[in-house]
Amino acid sequence: MQTVLGANGPIGEELTRELYRSFTPDIRLVSRNPTKVHDTDQLVKADLTDPQATARAVEGSEIAYLTVGLPMDSQLWEQKFPAMMRNVIDACAKYGTKLVFFDNTYMYPGTPAPQTESTGFEPNGRKGRVRAQIATMLLDAMTAGSVEAAICRAPEFYGPGKTKSLTNSLVFDRIRAGKRSLVPVSAKTVRSLIWTPDASRAMALVGNTPDAYGQTWHLPVDPHRLTYAEMIGVAEQVTGRRIRYSVLPLAAFNIGGRFIGPLGEVKELLPRYRGDNIFDASKFTTRFPDFTVTSYEEGIAEILG
């Protein structure tokens, strides 16, 4: 049995498809209101802030994948993410279940320096501090030998379907709607974006590779990084039309955040848009050389096609 904790999001759904396609039909989907992806999926309703419910959700699982996402709300993150991580670690330790944690980069310094698996945690806001806290909780449990686990870390998303990110909502969703794109902070800095189906396929591969445990992995991205201006150029080729865009400066988020909650919640992430974002996934590509990464050109064509 392989179990997806937080199964309703785009990462969890794609992960479920990949597990079924490549590894096992014996899959359990866990969330507050799970829905089947395949007829054979086992559904379990659970609130992962409840220790007993989490233990029941994990029991009998060979591998558990923690892919839970929460709305961009710092207070909610502080209340829920540490409790979820503690409960999942305890449940996996109790039942001898391997744990694969889907992580992000909010705890990394927002500088142009390349980010590798050894990059230190230097969060500059509340959400970054929460992510550093829960990653450290798991690293400590791994070091103590209480749980066999792997951390799969990904940069900002872009992708099809239900994918949510600044890039999707401000750039590609607006292109699809025939609206002017809004580029956060700078159109001239290169971005490391991960195609969400690639992230899920890579995480399934890590989870089913015994020697991948006990480590942190940067999940694969297209190494031929593009700026937002270049991405919009690709979009013009795909759509066959001129696409206009405006750059939203930091001041726009600072002012807008006073009146629109979600804008204020993303403010701590914006320094990383001022310079190049170099997320280095060479460790993964060296270990898994046959893994095919979706190029920006392929991804943008799928989103807008």
Automatic annotation (TrEMBL):
UniProt-recorded name of the protein: NAD-dependent epimerase/dehydratase family protein
Organism in which the protein naturally occurs = Streptomyces salinarius
Pfam families, from UniProt? Epimerase (PF01370)
The organism's superkingdom is given as: Bacteria
NAD-dependent epimerase/dehydratase domain span: 4-212
